[in-house]
Amino acid sequence: RQRCRADGRALRKLPVHVGLVVTEEEQSYADMASLVVWCMAVGISYVSVYDHNGIFKRNNSRLMDEILKQQQELIGLNCSRCTMEFANQDKTGQVLNCQSTLKVLSPEDGKADIVKAARNFCHLVAQQQRTHTDLDVNVLDNLLSSTNGFPDPDLVLKFGPVDSTLGFLPWHIRLTEIISLPSHLNISYEEFFSALHHYAACEQRWGK
């Protein structure tokens, strides 16, 4: 834990929100839990987990159990609890941690959420609660339920050979730095921190 905190403070910049995107067919709950706990340990405030088949979201209790187990081992028991959220679901769970929030996402939280937000806006227009000229980036952001309260990802770590994020929050990653890694299976802390170091060293031009 102390090493992770020191590593986080040593970086020139630390992402506020990291997306962990798995494009591989095989998913490892233990390895994904390690990535989540390392994010929390270095001081990242928001973490999103995504796979294109929605397996982590469907089996969220299994993932949460593994995260809790690894947090107890790394961080210890004398830590406050925070909420682990599952987008577009009522399920929440308590995870040992001091400052991070986690969302588990699936494809339905991407393009489908944008379609739902557009329908909701049209409904508001039909009820004369909005006009068509009210639609802008901020209004659409507020209508998107899957990332309510979450900032856009600063960094996406994409795992697997597929050269695509496969539907991960397409509205929110316009300015996101994407770093590809071969696999999340058996990933080491050194590989994870190397990706953070790469992000800290890159110059973001924000579309300019």
Describe this entry's structure for a reader:
By secondary structure, this protein is an alpha/beta fold. Helix content is 38%, strand content 18%. It has 2 domains: 2-107 and 148-201, Undecaprenyl pyrophosphate synthetase (3-Layer(aba) Sandwich); 111-145, no CATH class. The protein has helices at 2-10, 29-42, 55-58, 60-74, 111-126, 137-143, 189-201; strands at 17-22, 46-51, 81-86, 92-96, 101-105, 155-159, 177-181. Strands 4-3-5-2-1-6-7 form a 7-stranded mixed sheet. Helix 2 (29-42) crosses helix 4.
The number of distinct helices, counting runs of at least 4 residues, comes to 7
Please tell me how large the radius of gyration is. 18 Å
Profile the largest sheet: 7 strands, mixed
Portion in helices: 25-40%
CATH architecture of the largest domain: 3-Layer(aba) Sandwich
Order of helices and strands: HEHEHHEEEHHEEH
Distance between the termini: 38 Å
Going by CATH, what is the homologous superfamily of the largest domain? Decaprenyl diphosphate synthase-like
In CATH's first tier, which class of the largest domain applies?
A: Alpha Beta
**Oligomer kind:** single chain
What is the strand tally? 7
State the low-pLDDT regions, or none: 77-83, 87-91, 93-98
Secondary-structure-based class equals alpha/beta
Mean pLDDT: 81
Shape: globular
CATH topology category name of the largest domain = Undecaprenyl pyrophosphate synthetase
Largest sheet strand order: 4-3-5-2-1-6-7
Question: How many domains is the backbone divided into?
Answer: 2
The amount of beta strand, in percent, is 15-25%
